[in-house]
TrEMBL record:
Source taxon at top rank: Bacteria
UniProt cross-references to Pfam families, sorted A to Z: Zn_peptidase_2
Record key words, sorted: Membrane, Transmembrane, Transmembrane helix
InterPro entries: Zn_peptidase_2
UniProt organism field: Alistipes dispar
Name of the molecule in the record: Membrane protein
TM segment ranges: 22-43, 145-165, 171-191, 230-249
Length: 254
């Protein structure tokens, strides 16, 4: 991903005048965001395909996703987290506020390899919480800030660009960029949280002999594709911040 960015910056640097320089770079960054979005769509489609494939592979032990989750929690001496059912597809999540591992329709009652992998991953978050895993705690603290920032940032930037065009005052624009940067920071912090939860899940599946051989490899593949969706989201968030920075710089008068 670095090479396209270097080309874009070099193209922006040698163009004249300065406003055109940043405008060209911001346009290039816009297309980079689109490219990342396409890659994200491909990764998401692959994740759905892998999950569908391994949803048809029955878990050798016959345990449902809910039973796998309960077993992993017990094995980690976690007794204050409840396994519950939520509607939807791949809407599984751990909620530290209610201390619940919430499993979706396709996971809770399913005895497939995919269901077991997802259930173990969500319990990985519960283990992180119980062990005081710092990135998870930081991400939880950022949730209300990011929710506000993501819903307001675009309006702040649009108003800031109007003010910039008439008064050359950039303050509001940079406030908006800072709000978008909070979402990017959240995406970056999410990466170690998700990768670590998958690592904990796979380690437990293996050491507890809940999964072995081909089934363990299938679970690893499913969780790897899920993790890649977070990586693409982080790249997209970073590119968005750079795009708006270049857009603001391009709005300056020479």
């Amino acid at each position: 991903m670095l090479q396209p960015l270097i080309v874009l910056l070099q193209a922006g640097y040698y163009a004249e005048p300065a406003a055109s320089r940043y405008s060209a770079a911001s346009t290039g960054m816009f297309f980079l965001i689109i490219a990342i979005g396409i890659v994200g769509y491909i990764v998401q489609a692959r994740l759905q395909s892998v999950f569908k494939k391994y949803s048809k592979v029955q878990f050798p032990g016959g345990l449902t996703g809910a039973e796998v989750a309960e077993k992993m929690l017990r094995d980690n001496n976690i007794h204050n987290v409840k396994v519950t059912h939520v509607g939807g597809h791949l809407t599984d999540h751990f909620n530290p506020q209610t201390m619940t591992v919430n499993l979706s329709d396709s996971v809770y009652s399913s005895s497939s390899v995919a269901a077991a992998a997802v259930a173990a991953h969500e319990c990985g978050h519960a283990v992180q919480h119980a062990r005081g895993y710092a990135p998870l705690a930081l991400r939880s603290q950022l949730v209300p800030v990011v929710q506000f920032a993501s819903s307001s940032a675009m309006w702040v930037i649009l108003l800031g660009l109007v003010i910039l065009a008439t008064t050359q005052n950039e303050l509001l624009c940079w406030i908006g960029v800072g709000m978008i940067a909070m979402s990017a920071l959240f995406s970056l912090i999410t990466l170690p949280v998700e990768y670590n939860a998958s690592a904990r899940a796979l380690e437990w599946l293996q050491t507890s002999r809940t999964m072995e051989g081909a089934q363990l490899a299938q679970a690893r593949e499913a969780l790897s594709w899920a993790a890649r969706t977070y990586l693409v989201a982080a790249l997209s968030a970073i590119a968005s911040v750079l795009y708006y920075v270049l857009l603001i710089l391009g709005g300056r008068r020479d």
